[in-house]
UniProtKB/TrEMBL annotation:
GO terms for biological process: regulation of DNA-templated transcription. Residues 212-277 form the HTH luxR-type domain. This is Transcriptional regulator MalT. GO terms for molecular function: DNA binding. InterPro entries: GAF (IPR003018), GAF-like_dom_sf (IPR029016), HTH-type_RamA-like (IPR049651), Sig_transdc_resp-reg_C-effctor (IPR016032), Tscrpt_reg_LuxR_C (IPR000792), WH-like_DNA-bd_sf (IPR036388). Keywords: DNA-binding, Transcription, Transcription regulation. Pfam families: GAF, GerE. It comes from the Bacteria.
Length: 280
């Protein structure tokens, strides 16, 4: 059970790093896992040129990541070795890798820092507010993924407060939940009575409410309908028939969704929507 959760967490982290690199164009993305109470270890990375930072251990308060771990707040520096907001024990390894600008954001699950999400560049350029916002949003999505993994793998009989948790759903059962959610959205789309349609949409929302997060990206009801069709494996033509609209309109909704979620394919969009709690 625990080994499966670890694998799921590693997959979620790897996906977050790839999505972040694609969304920002920043060449280096990294994740440092909290090991013990006051230490980090860089466990996954994309774009590093040397092994200097690979598997590096960092104490709380040290450098960018250590400061984030200590303060639980994002930190960004445009010239690492000259920055006055951090300590400089790590200057030599940063210079070995050749990084200049770095942004780091905490990943917090159940009020505990689980890790640090980094982006960095090998040139002396300032990473702007949009990049920092993108890193923060990716961290929030990753937090949800890690929380879901923990909940899905919680052993039977474990209690939260006074409420007993149901056993964890297996993969096939999760797919059934997702399929039911998509079909409910399609059913709501065909209902003419406003009150019944709203009730069905509320039921759809309740299916993702336990893992809902505050979304920077807002998807419209029709965009969610299109994603629900895609999640069922429908083509654009099949989705158009299901929703009673034209195939070009489906394409337009899908392009809008992919742009909002920073996705490059329709299936990346479905996965991104699931990460932010818009789909189960």
């Amino acid at each position: 059970m625990e080994s499966q959760r670890i694998r799921d967490d590693e997959d979620a982290i790897r996906s977050a790093l790839s999505s972040l690199k694609n969304a920002t164009g920043i060449p280096v993305t990294m994740y440092a896992t909290v090991v013990g109470e006051n230490r980090l270890q860089i466990s996954q990375w994309i774009g590093l040129r040397t092994p200097a930072l690979q598997n590096l251990c960092i104490d709380s308060g040290v450098g960018v990541g250590g400061r984030v771990l200590k303060t639980r707040r994002p930190v960004g520096v445009s010239d690492y070795t000259r920055a006055n907001v951090i300590s400089h024990e790590m200057d030599s390894v940063i210079q070995d890798e050749g990084l200049h600008s770095i942004v780091a954001v905490p990943v917090i699950v159940h009020r505990e820092v689980r890790g640090i999400l980094y982006v960095g560049v090998h040139s002396p350029v300032r990473l702007g507010d949009k990049v920092i916002e993108e890193v923060a949003m990716t961290a929030r999505v990753l937090e949800q993924d890690l929380a879901i993994n923990a909940a899905a793998r919680r052993p039977e009989g474990v209690r939260t407060g006074s409420m007993k948790q149901n056993r964890a759903l297996n993969g096939a059962e999760w797919e059934q939940v997702r399929s039911t959610h998509s079909k409910l959205r399609m059913l709501a789309n065909r209902i003419e009575q406003e009150d019944i349609r709203q009730e069905l949409e509320e039921l759809c929302d309740q299916m993702v409410a336990p893992v809902q997060v505050k979304q920077t990206t807002k998807l419209s009801a029709r965009e969610l309908d299109v994603l629900s069709c895609v999640a069922l494996g429908h083509t654009n033509v099949e989705a158009a028939e299901e929703m009673g609209i034209g195939a070009e309109t489906v394409k337009s909704y899908l392009r809008s969704v992919m742009r909002k979620l920073g996705a490059h394919t329709r299936y990346e969009a479905v996965n991104a929507a699931r990460r932010i709690g818009a789909l189960p």
